[in-house]
Structure formats: C-alpha cells, structure tokens
Amino acid sequence: MRNVPGSSDPLVDEMFATTHKLRTYVDGRLAEKGTTVARLRALRFLAHAAEPMRMRDLSDMLGIAARTATALVDALERDGLVVRLPHPTDRRAHLLALTDAGVTCHQEAEDLDREALAIATSGLTAEDRTALRALLARIRDTVSAAPKHPQAQRVDGGDSAAVDGR
Questions:
Q1: CB neighbours of 4 closer than 8 A, spacing ≥ 6?
Q2: Distance CA 120, CA 99 (A)
Q3: pTM score
Q4: Mean of the pLDDT values across residues 37-51?
Q5: Fewer CB atoms inside 10 Å of the end CB: C or N, the chain?
C-alpha cells in the first residue's frame, strides 16, 4: 500500500492498489507472449466481433480516446496482429480485423490471462467471490445513479481510461 493516500477514502485506496497490483501481475504474465492487458483487450474485442470493426467502435468498446486507440492499433498492426481494411462505403474509414498471427496471439494471451487470474484469485472461496462481486456491483450501481456534475463530465470527456489504462 502507498504511504500517501490517493483519495480521501482508505477503502478506495485499497481498491485502486489491488487493481494496480493485479494489472501489474497480469501484464507481467502476458509479457511472456509479448503482449499487455491493453493489447489483449483490443485483440479480445476484435476476435469476438462478427465482422471487421471501425476504429471508433473499438475505441468506444475499450472506453479509451480515439487517439489512444489509434496508437494501440498502430502497434498491433506493426506487429502483424491487426490489418486495416478499406471500408466498403466510406473512403475515409478503415475496418480492423485480426490477422492469423493476431488470432494465435489472442488465444495464447487469453490462456495466460485465465491462468494468471485463477492464481490471483485462488485465495477466494466461491462465497468470497459471490460476496465481492455483489459489493462491487453495489458500488458501480451507486456511482451510476449518482447525479453528474457538469464540470466532471467535461473534465472526463471519455479520456480517463486513456490515463489509467482501463
């Protein structure tokens, strides 16, 4: 745990510290296959898409800014995992699809992710998992129902995920 709190609530600090530690652990495991959680998430959405998707759709699904998605896709394309295809009706747009290497990378990364998460949560009983999921859902529901302050909406603007990587 950090010496300097990141919020005014120790519980929130604990949640962020746990998320950070989990992300760091899974990223370390995924590095064995040359990927990261962010790359896996993009590969996952592309792998499960019924057809090639627009960059904007991937950006929205990942909850990241368009410029962040572009940098991510550029790297995936450079590594031969994603290909940009011409859009059939919009000359300015491209569609994204996994290459064969991208499909293989996705499958291997999913296996590592599943294994890492199983290890990370192995200390929880089925009852612990159920209780924790219910508590986390309650927090999400409360935040979703909370009134939005106009200034907070402007500051967030959808780019917060680009900052914290989620």
A1: none
A2: 31
A3: 0.78
A4: 96
A5: N
